[in-house]
Predict the structure.
Amino acid sequence: MPRLFRLLVWLVALALGLGWVALSLAKPTQVGFGPDLPEGIGSVVSHAAELTTRLGHWLHLIGIGFWLVLAIAADGFGPKARVYLPAVLSGVLLWTAFFPLNWWPVAFVALAPLLTLVRAEGVGRWRRYTAAWVGGLAFGLLDVNWLRHAHPMMAYFAWPLLSLFLSVYWPLALFLLRRLDRLGKPPLALTLPAVWVALEYIKAHWPTGYPFMKWIHCHQLAGFAWGFLGHTQHANLPLLQSADLGGAYLPGLAVAAINGAAHDWLVRWRPFRRLVNLPRGWVLPVYRQEMLNTGGAIAVVVLLLIYGGFRLNHPPFDQGPRVALLQDELSIADMERDPLLLFARYDKLTRQAANAGQAPDLIVWPESCYPFADVTVPPGRENTLPRNWLSDWAVQNRQIDVNRFRAESRNRPEERAFVELLELGRQGYAEKHWHSHVMLGLNGVDWDGERGRKYNSARMLKPDGTPGPRYDKLHLVPFGEYPPFRERFPFLANFTPDPTNPGCEPGEDLVRFDLPVVRRGADGKQVPKLYQFGVLICYEDTEPVLARRFNPWAADGKPADFVVNMSLDSWFDGSEQHEQHLALARFRAVEARRAVLRAVNMGITAVIDPDGRVLQTVDFTWADSKKKVGTVTADVPIDTRGSVYAAVGDWVPLLCWAGIAAGLVQAWRVRKRS
């Protein structure tokens, strides 16, 4: 009977897992890419995708059920200690602290069940580390499941591979914790923060993003600074302020310390002991150590909260330039299918913003929403341009036969707007209709007569339409914007959304843009003022090393008054990625002590002040602001404070690694003596 019951549990886990994966992979077919399917299979996939959309968050519950049932089946029903269940329980609990649920207080205890594996007795090495890996895999697959919305290749490859990458850190953390535990079982409230934050630093820069790699000329911005423990505290405004001391690592350190202390109490809780079959040998005989550990962990959090309260207590921010941030709801398929519609939609929003009662000083388009490339070419070499870039250059410079296009057009409104763009050229069109500083998200192309370099760019247009500076994105997304090792391993291009596209090149400089404005002074006279701002494109606002360079205390000494982030999140079709992305941008605002202005196609467009508050979105709530059309117009809050994090950098994880190294050496010495 026990064997039959266990077989039944395995079958339930298998059914839940297959159902969850099948429904999850059905969703990307709606994006409009991928191969044509036979009629029968296509009908099944279409119905599965429709069911997935209706299930919504219930799909997450199916996934949670699969992992919990799988953990129970793997542990079995005998008297031996359960290790898979607490590991999976930690993975699920940690996921709930992020969007879509955003239960951020859960993060303070989410890792406590996992920590039972550190001192578990009578558990084999294989079973112990496999359990930690399964818990990490559960968290990874749940946390980045929004990747499946972007493209079939992202669903079939990027989602599972990135989840596997994230899962590796869990058994690695367990390994380091057990090695440090040889030093007389030090408090987990001390060792867990050091190990967890140190590994988050590795994840944020792996494989080539570490600053020391500049010395060996192998440095390129890379890594995945997403899903940090500290990121769960984006809504905890006082604790969030500590990010200007140590980045997202410092609040993560405090959360991990509470988790370590919570473990000491959790193993004394009888229901939990029964759930995981803890033997009495796992529990310390006295409470003194728990009290000391808990008191120390709480003291760290309280000190950071006090610091946060001090930083929040300041005079109101000065009001800077007025900025309009544009957002539409177009899907990636619609953007690819009809670039004229894309231009017409954002042109309409731009005209509305420019002709409002109080015209903005700057209008910001989202990433890649101006559908014609910004082409630079030496004079006289235009005839050497490839056909696709030649047409974009012609649109830019009034070099297309407008009468021919007008005769061939179906006279749609978007085609009429395009005809006028051809007649006037980009400069004339902007001067006539937009008459403001406009920041366009587009592709930049530099052609030297023989070879072209393509960039993901932001181009400033002045009120008279003349082009200002252009910023080319520094931190590209592998497989999304370029195939890694494209020269050595060309087949890797098949794992990108467009295998025929050679991809983008990284930019070289973090450009500062000048924004001159005129304000009326107290005496009624016009007072000219010059502001400077920087631009981050797409996931560059998840990269701490870039945003903090805009603070006056940064090493490069080129401050900016605020930061613009333009992004194209419509790849993810209204999933929780939109909220998670906005939550990370709050850390960049605090770390740099600069307002962050986000213009995002499909959302979430927002204004974030230098304290990390989200002041405005398109609609009342974050969730309601997704997949909406609208404009966010606001006066930019200007902060002049410095940031320790901007000046010193990643001292928190580096200090953690120094402590871990010292602990491992001392543990080796102790083991050698004994």
Observations:
- The first strand starts at residue 318 and ends at 327.
